[in-house]
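Lecture 7, part 2: worked example. A protein chain together with adenosine-5'-triphosphate.
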Amino acid sequence: MVTSARGKGREDPAPPASTPPASTPPASTPPASTPLDGVRDEVVARPSGLFDAQTYRTSVWRIAAQFPRITRITFQAAWRAGRAAHLVTLATQVVAALGAGFGLYSAAGVLRQLLTAGASADRVAAALPTLMMIVVALAVQASAETCGAYLGKRLAARMKRDARGRLLDAACHVELSAFDDPAWHEALERAETAGAPNFDATHGWIMATLHSLMLVVAAAGTLGVLDPVLLVALVVSVLPEGWSALRAARLDYESFHRCGLLRRRLWLLTRLVRGEPRAAAEIRAHTAQRFVMTEVDRIGGLLEAEELRLAAKHARLGSVARALGGVGLGAAYVLLGVFLATGRTPLAVAGAALIAVQVGRRRLAEVVRYGMRAYETGMYVLDYQRVLDDAAARTRPRTDRRVPVDPEVIRVENVSFGYHGSARPALREVSLEIRRGQIIALVGENGSGKSTLAKLLAGLYLPTGGRITWDGVDLAGVDPDSVSRAVAMVPQDTLHWPLTIRDNITLGADGPLDADRLRYAVAASGTDQVVAQMPHGLDTPLSRHYVHGAQASGGQWQRISVARALYRDAPVLVADEPTAALDARAEAQVYASLAELAAGRTCVLITHRMASVKIADHIYVLHEGRLVEEGTHESLLAAGGRYAELYALQASAYADDEPAVGARVSP
Ligand SMILES: Nc1ncnc2c1ncn2[C@@H]1O[C@H](COP(=O)(O)OP(=O)(O)OP(=O)(O)O)[C@@H](O)[C@H]1O
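Predicted complex, written out as structure tokens:
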């Protein structure tokens, strides 16, 4: 029999699917002119570093070779989840198998006693003690199985939780650059949706395989004692099932990998449509419903076609396996009949052998089937482990070396940086210096590298060339958390945490809640006006997903983001367009607070509002990743370069006599 051979975790968020041949598109494929035509070839087997492309071209030997690894990783996870439960589960399997084996062997004895010559009553009386022992053995087997099943369930819940926790913990600590790598996203998705949920299943299948294997040994032992030739017949009769289960698992695994990108695309679209209020508004505003639904339908069609293709292959494999298995079993029976007819095997022994063949065959089939399920779900566990190993390689090694708590001088020394997969560097040989108590401003056109430099200064990325030091200590050699703790950041696109306003402001800060500091941060950022409008004040959850939740505007979110940075009380403040969404009054208030806060701190400010740049002590102008000018506002204006040009361009927008239209910035 062919099982569906699907990892159970995969059924949850995204069913497996795969490539329909390019020449036979599925019926639901939209007309040829969809805007996403160019990405049709996304459904291809793309071996990545995190995917063992050889795995699905599997031979029996390869499976056998993988089994110890799968078992080791799974048992380690079970050990972590609950040592006692894991050991007792193992013990119950052994006890259950011993009970069943004893029952089987005794059954052969009972038959022999019943089929020997003599009065029926005497024969039954003689068999009674053995029968009683069989009953006891079966009771022991049943109790052990029930106990094992219960403990297995408890262990399963814990293993799943642990596996998800370890993965998310790894994802929280990898270098930010990992998230610029599509391979990482894909591997993480697979590990989360298929790897983590399959740990408990793999553990269960391994246990079931062991259990059945022990029963096979018991049956084979019985059969071996009765007639070893029948043992060979038993093995041959179950081979077709093993072959078909192997083929089915390979097909599913291959399909799952081939469709990874499709599933992720569908998942992203689904999340946009059902989970993102901003997306909901934009989908309507741009009348993008048809666009989205066409793509959803196209991907759904491809995935469905693949499901159908797999179902047909499974059905074909199943029928061939069943037919061959029937032939094998028939051959075993014929052999037994021949032995009986020729007098090689007495009737009592033949009866016992028949039971042993049936039990052995059923259990051997279970070994193959459960073993294949263990192998199949185990492949996702191996994937999961590969992702964890990859995450470890992408994570800066932990070290006790910390960044200076309150740096006197931060130096950027000849720093270059390129994003993953990007041929063009975002920063080229930039050098600058920031002293404590200074506000420096980074100025430049879109894409000139300001945010990138800010992220490097905050230790979120490490330079690909050059170095950044805090009081001479290279950020590359210190514990990254120590850098993050010393930096308060107002990012350009602040994340809308679905938390209360209070939690939005205080999240991530060390120590217990400081009510005075919270009050100051709320007032200095203008968040007090946001709080005043909210139904539950600071305790209002900022998400429409909650019954008592509220939706903040873009400017209100920005005030909260500034409040978070002010509350953090860190020696280094990095503000990337902190007032882009603020009204004029709030902007003035934020800049006054920043100026006040800058005393005794190091402040990096990025803004396109040239009037605000004036609060900076020193200004650096970036252009296409290079530092092209630096100085004070006055000196840069006097120099008449790019800064002066940008300034004049903005200033002209406010001047009555000088229209901005026509003003140009040098290329
Ligand atoms: N995560 C990323 N992956 C790849 N390239 C990126 C990434 N982030 C930024 N870039 C590229 O790096 C360059 C510099 O981007 P950056 O965001 O630093 O510019 P910026 O000066 O802050 O621009 P803006 O004024 O628009 O905020 C740009 O060419 C941008 O396309």
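Residues 409-654 form a domain with the Rossmann fold fold (CATH 3.40.50.300). The first strand starts at residue 409 and ends at 417. Keep this in mind for problem set question 3.
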